[in-house]
Design a protein that fits this description.
The protein has about 100 residues and is mostly helical. It has helices spanning about 1-55, 60-70. The longest helix has about 55 residues, at about 1-55. The N and C termini lie far apart (about 110 Å).
């Protein structure tokens, strides 16, 4: 009977150590999971902020302001605009003009 008690006690101790090890691993993995979820939230917030920044930077007024400041460009004034007029004679198309399509 004593042998059975010793064997059962060793099995009980092994089960207890296994339970402690499993709980420790569970706590460790739970902490890692919480850290990963927190990092995912931070990355999602950063991604949304980058999308907002990209949308705001692509607006016409910001592009125009950058063109004026960095490149020294000016808005087109109606007085400086040249308009071209094309007169088309009846029976003549633009493809029938000499040199059009003669790419060599």
């Amino acid at each position: 009977m004593t042998r059975i008690n010793v064997v059962l006690m060793l099995v009980l101790i092994a089960c207890a150590l296994s339970l402690v090890s499993a709980r420790f691993s569970t706590r460790h993995l739970t902490g890692d999971l919480e850290n990963a979820v927190a990092q995912a939230r931070k990355l999602e917030i950063d991604w949304n902020q980058l999308q907002l920044d990209q949308a705001s930077l692509s607006k016409h007024t910001l592009i125009e302001a950058a063109a004026r400041k960095e490149l020294g460009m000016q808005a087109v004034a109606p007085g400086k605009t040249q308009y071209l007029t094309v007169t088309v004679h009846s029976g003549v198309s633009l493809h029938d003009t000499p040199g059009a399509g003669d790419a060599q």
